[in-house]
Amino acid sequence: MGQSQHVNIFSLFRNHQQELQLCNISVCLSGGINDFRIIGGADSTVKEARLRVKFAIRAADFRFPSGKIIVNLSPVAQLKQGSTFDLPIALAILAASKQIELPSVCLSYGELSLSGQVNDTGDLLSYRQYEADKQQIKIILDYIYKLADFPKIKCYLPADMKEEYWQNIKNCDYFSISQLKDLHNLSAVIANNGNNASLARSSINLPDYQQEEIDSRQRSMLLSLERQAQIALDNYVELKNMDFSKRSLHIALAGGHPLLFIGSNGSGKTELLHSAVYFLENELKQVWQTYNRELRDLEQILLDVGCLSLPGQLWNGQRQSGKLLKFKSGLLFLSELNKFRSKSLLCLEEFWQRNLTYTGDNNFTDTSAVPSDVHLQPFCQLLCDMNPCPCGNLFEPWLAACHCSEYRVKQFNQHIGGALWDRLSMICLVRREELPVLNILPPNSLAEAVDDKTALNKSKHDKILLAEKMRDNIQKCRNFQRERNYSLCHRYCLNAQLNLAELSKIQVLTTEMQDFINTMHYARHLSFRRLLYLRALALTLADFQGRECNIQNFIEAAAYIEIPEEIQRECA
């Protein structure tokens, strides 16, 4: 059942005789399928306000209500044109959804931009009809004053309004609004009864009901993050015989390197990737504290994308994804990478160029705006997995023979282009877990069963302690990299975010290291980007071990950089 708003919001428009006329705006919210309609003699220019109002409300850190939204403009017989009704429609929707408090009768007009900025409409008031319009405004305000039950009428107008029309008018308090975000302080300004007040968000606290809503959402997100971290720890402890894969994950998290696991179904690669939530739980909480005013859900810092949930769409002239567009900083999981559609992978490549690589344009946030105890730049840690072939046994012929032809394997991996392969700095093969030998003989006594359970719990407790120790080592390594890179390159960043010039300041190459890089370039045909990843990964291995970088780190890093021959042959 619809819930009608209890505020009479009036606005101004020009009728067919070019005279100012009063318009009453009412909003009805109801459940059901999302639908937003504007009725009541609105032409195409007024109906376009749906998109402006929707994106402006979201940009102003408000919640756009779900369900059916019907906006009625009265009188219906008169044709309405222009963008005059943007601000009053937004006020009516926010008041109907109980996000702001408005007086019972108020007047407003103004145009909204997609970023939430409020602009004056030049076609509403002009100096050519100054005298006639000013006299008409007085008549309109006198009519509204008869409907109000308080001494003065509240008017919410753009900051760049023509003040000549509103000065020296009795029974009127007008508030200038430059941004829709200023409405967060609307109730406090109304309580002050200030005339010609400018809404300053930083000087006035939020209303109590809005602060309670924000705190409740943040507590829910934090509990959800802690719950996912506990599940990730349990899955990490249960995985066995995956020492090499676990070490690969630790190195990738220590340096922020993109990681790809290739393995068959049931090998545990997806569960192992999701255990990164546990190892980076403290840093994700810091990100959550930094962006807590902007976050609406946990997917903005911890996003798990399936192969069918990343549709490409056109946004501001660039192909982007709706989920990636809202992603702030944190962990990005891509499951079954080779099953993504080509359009989705194009979105991913453009997102990669913007967020995962540093181009030297200094397009990162200023660290002075971040709290002193949190030096975090927006950064996305990419973790993905895939099967090598349709049956998944391409790398495990000992388990089951792979009957997939070269053509089927090529078709299975055809969506992944060379540019995407070139940006995966770590590629690791995950072997399927061997099944333990089951003891089918019953225990001789109840005491033996209790001892076996105690030994199993003790072993699990030891694994949890090792996981906690590894989490501390990864966090110390990331903090050490940020402080060192800031002292040498003036950026709080990880090794994966360093460009070639910054990496050369930190890593001094010996003759042996340079010869190894040349060999990998000419003999293994590695691109310059992969050679950069090789140096950054070798530096991370040295930092993870707590020593200076040497040739052994380069040799170990080369094992992660190279693409498997079977995959490389099929994708060539």
TrEMBL record:
**Residue span(s) of domain Mg chelatase-related protein C-terminal:** 468-552
Q: Where do the Magnesium chelatase ChlI-like catalytic domain residues begin and end?
A: 243-277, 320-433
Q: Which domain of life is it from?
A: Bacteria
Return the protein name. Magnesium chelatase domain-containing protein
Organism expressing this protein natively: Amygdalobacter indicium
